[in-house]
């Protein structure tokens, strides 16, 4: 009989761990669910990618057969080439657009808040909506080309959406419209955090605005630039909804991207093993971007710690 | 003071900024105008034009009239689906993320950095790596093609974001505050309710806005794990454009697009500042 029970009859003392059970549950259950599903689901998908699974997951081992089948398929090859083109063009152009917008907004102009909202609002809208709207604007029979024709310039041609070679650029256009505001927001934060004393000192030394930007402000934006590149590349690699709504991979399979190939293999052709292999390939592409970034961050942190 | 207002370079800057802003607003303007034009009017001209007769009926048709497959209930049921998924998933993932963020940053327990590291992996892993396992798990627990299944997925997957947001915010709270409360005998939950939660509104607003926007706009899970009447509005919009491909109804479709985008646009208008904060959280650090 413990003292507590003697003092408060009718309420026996609970063992420590029982008393703290709700606390343990609240700490561990959500975190464990989140961590465990990430690890186990990833391993699960990797495992399926080595099995001969088609309609349902089955046990077995086929080595790299699914991978070679995916890599040899025209669908994947086009998707991979498209990803290289789309990824580099989108990242580069959204970087340039974002930086240009940030520099323009940094000139102490009136209505800055309103303009910033205008450049950012597409980010609040789903890719499905963005893709649908751009598919109308870029459709030669409905959108910009039709408008210009109706205005009298009938030789005007802007039919990238149905042009096999140019269709991928329509996705670049929509993606830039959607997400260069994000680059702008980050760059603007970076521009505002440049030490004003250094700028003033440069002004006293007679440096003009161009020189100040080129020599002082832009070099200080490197860390932000790398962050923006990595985040935008990550977005490019997983692009799915935008293409689904804008071109649905077409015309033909001209705008195919890895994320669409995965979905197609898994849920439309019921080739689970191959779909899983394609998903793992997507992960590998992503790691090719993220691992150098992680290494760079690590070196930066070490340097900051030693400084 | 230098005279700035009429300098040619200033005028050029304003001109460029306004032009880009117009280009950025144009798609929205086009959809809004189209949602008010009749299908005949659009068919005769292009998607870009001023309404001759204001066809407000498009909104009624989009909301509760048009047909996808055999059902003619507009996008109302799908909007309801999206709300029934987004609201609970946002609340659950935010609350659990706040507790988890508090636990890993202030309460501390054995293995906290490890488990936190694994949870944040969820920010980077492509969704495609988890599609098959989720399909199998949802089928086994009987939640495939249900809204509850989507709530479960968004809650668990959202924890990566919400835990990160809250943890980054809570690390700035002085540890002495927690230590003093612990000495006074306050437990895990009392400290959370009495100290952490009252300090949390700024980060909770960011997290709620971020999660709401994210979950509302999500498409891949919606289209993979649900079908027909159970789909969220993003998936229904794609189904709608496929359904009306034969007889184009761009006016009604535009109205549907506007209605579907309205909740997140409103949140963006009301909480723009917090939206940007959520956007840049973690990215600038």
Automatic annotation (TrEMBL), chain A:
Membrane topology: Multi-pass membrane protein
Keyword Transport in record: yes
Protein localization: Cell membrane
Transmembrane segments: 25-47, 83-106, 118-137, 166-191, 212-237, 275-296
Sequence ranges assigned to domain ABC transmembrane type-1 in this UniProt record: 80-293
Keywords: Cell membrane, Membrane, Transmembrane, Transmembrane helix, Transport
Keyword Chaperone included in the entry's annotation: no
InterPro entries cross-referenced by the UniProt entry: ABC_transporter_permease, MetI-like, MetI-like_sf
PANTHER family with a match to the protein in the record: ABC TRANSPORTER PERMEASE PROTEIN (PTHR30193:SF42)
The family this protein is said to belong to: Belongs to the binding-protein-dependent transport system permease family.
Descriptive protein name: Glucose/mannose transport system permease protein
Native species: Bradyrhizobium ottawaense
Taxonomic placement: Bacteria, Pseudomonadati, Pseudomonadota, Alphaproteobacteria, Hyphomicrobiales
TrEMBL record, chain B:
Gene3D superfamilies (alphabetical): MetI-like (1.10.3720.10)
Topology in the lipid bilayer: Multi-pass membrane protein
Record has Transmembrane helix as a keyword: yes
SUPFAM superfamilies, alphabetized: MetI-like (SSF161098)
Domain of life: Bacteria
Any one Pfam family match given in the protein's UniProt record, by short name: BPD_transp_1
Broad class of where this protein is predominantly found: membrane
PROSITE patterns named in the record: ABC_TM1
Family as reported in the entry's similarity comment: Belongs to the binding-protein-dependent transport system permease family.
Descriptive protein name: Glucose/mannose transport system permease protein
Organism: Bradyrhizobium ottawaense
Native organism taxonomy: Bacteria, Pseudomonadati, Pseudomonadota, Alphaproteobacteria, Hyphomicrobiales
